[in-house]
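About this split. The held-out portion is used to measure sequence recovery: a designer receives only the structure tokens and must propose an amino acid at every position. Recovery is the fraction of positions where the proposal matches the reference. Here is one held-out target exactly as it appears in the evaluation file.
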């Protein structure tokens, strides 16, 4: 960490004032961890013991998913950037200290190419232009790189030449996808994907397993810390090989598959259809046969399972920032698992949901904060609940 901190001191982010992504930008990494520890303790220590936060070995350049909005200045220079908070003004960002450096270089090349091919950048107010966003995902262990170009139309003139040039300049790119988003929306990705080069997805290795990741599937953004996180989650689950495990909000199946080796059976539940498709492919990619996936709202699925009076031994859950629902938690009570492992990226909704679990007769055994997002204000927690 010392070297990295030295590097940080030399290299202050020039975009800090406008970006708003790294609110802990000028604070030493050690201090950041202290602040996050206090945040979690303030919200959760009345409910259970909060362990010492697990910090990152390297807090820099960790993001494996990088997003940029295309913009254009009066001279016709194309840039990628981010929306200034609360506005639709695009602030150019040519370098970011928490994003994978390979992605930044590809983005800079793309800006030059878009200009030299005389493509128009999308204008949100007028609804004109072609290039809207770029999304780059990198495989930390495999080195695979996916470039997703979000376009306002499925037709990219001179497509072959453009793709050839991008590949020539960046032979490290393993797949290029054209995503069509012709709606007036703040959502980045549209529904249609056209694979222009490669397989249309990347693979990465996590906890010794191989995972395929499609453009719209969720995948943890800090690969090194994800291994730390999953290890804790599986450890908290206390599996012996006999259990029926639910992996709710399972994404592409990463947590459930990490646990499957020590369980009798795992059922993954996920709302996003593409993620479920990836999850099914991932299970067969790794030869895991005791896991299946259901494409359904997790709350609805739990209600149905509870209505059938089914049981589960362990429930793993990893909902989005908005947290889980009362219906989900009340159904868990009926399924009667010995343990619930709640992975949360938002301690505020975690606190709300834990209260409901406690009302239902569970108690919080321990809470382990993990720093998945250095320099930002976000903090992840794994919480073990038992009967
Ligand atoms: N456990 C996975 C994914 C966590 S992110 C991992 O570690 O990679 C949360 C996931 O919940 C996303 O994949 C999202 O698509 C899914 N999700 C969001 N709302 C949901 C709902 N109501 N029911 C089921 N899944 C949902």
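Reference sequence for scoring:
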């Amino acid at each position: 960490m010392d070297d990295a901190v030295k590097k940080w001191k030399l290299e202050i982010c020039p975009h800090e004032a406008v970006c708003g992504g790294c609110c802990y930008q000028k604070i030493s990494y050690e201090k950041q961890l202290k602040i996050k520890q206090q945040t979690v303790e303030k919200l959760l220590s009345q409910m259970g013991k909060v362990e010492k936060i697990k910090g990152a070995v390297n807090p820099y350049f960790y993001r494996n998913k990088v997003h940029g909005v295309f913009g254009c200045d009066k001279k016709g220079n194309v840039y990628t950037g981010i929306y200034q908070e609360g506005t639709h003004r695009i602030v150019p960002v040519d370098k970011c200290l928490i994003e994978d450096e390979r992605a930044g270089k590809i983005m800079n090349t793309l800006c030059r190419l878009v200009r030299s091919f005389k493509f128009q950048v999308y204008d949100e107010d007028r609804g004109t232009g072609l290039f809207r966003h770029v999304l780059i995902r990198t495989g930390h262990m495999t080195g695979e790189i996916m470039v997703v170009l979000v376009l306002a139309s499925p037709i990219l003139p001179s497509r072959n030449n453009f793709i050839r040039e991008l590949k020539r300049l960046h032979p490290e790119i393993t797949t290029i996808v054209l995503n069509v988003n012709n709606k007036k929306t703040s959502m980045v990705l549209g529904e249609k994907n056209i694979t222009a080069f490669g397989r249309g997805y990347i693979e990465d290795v996590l906890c010794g397993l191989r995972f395929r990741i499609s453009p719209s599937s969720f995948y943890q953004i800090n690969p090194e810390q994800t291994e730390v996180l999953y290890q804790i989650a599986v450890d908290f689950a206390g599996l012996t090989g006999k259990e029926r495990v639910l992996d709710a909000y399972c994404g592409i199946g990463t947590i459930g598959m990490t646990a499957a080796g020590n369980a009798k059976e795992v059922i993954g539940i996920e709302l996003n259809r593409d993620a479920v498709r990836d999850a099914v492919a991932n299970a067969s990619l790794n030869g895991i046969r005791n896991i299946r996936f259901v494409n359904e709202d997790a709350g609805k699925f739990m209600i149905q399972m509870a209505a059938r009076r089914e049981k589960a031994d362990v429930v793993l859950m990893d909902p989005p920032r908005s947290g889980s629902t009362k219906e989900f938690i009340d159904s868990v009570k009926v399924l009667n698992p010995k343990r619930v492992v709640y992975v949360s990226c938002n301690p505020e909704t975690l606190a709300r949901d834990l209260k409901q679990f406690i009302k239902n007769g569970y108690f919080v055994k321990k809470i382990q904060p993990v720093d998945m997002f250095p320099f930002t204000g976000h903090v992840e927690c794994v919480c073990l609940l038992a009967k």
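Annotator remark: The chain has two domains: 23-59+222-386, 65-206.
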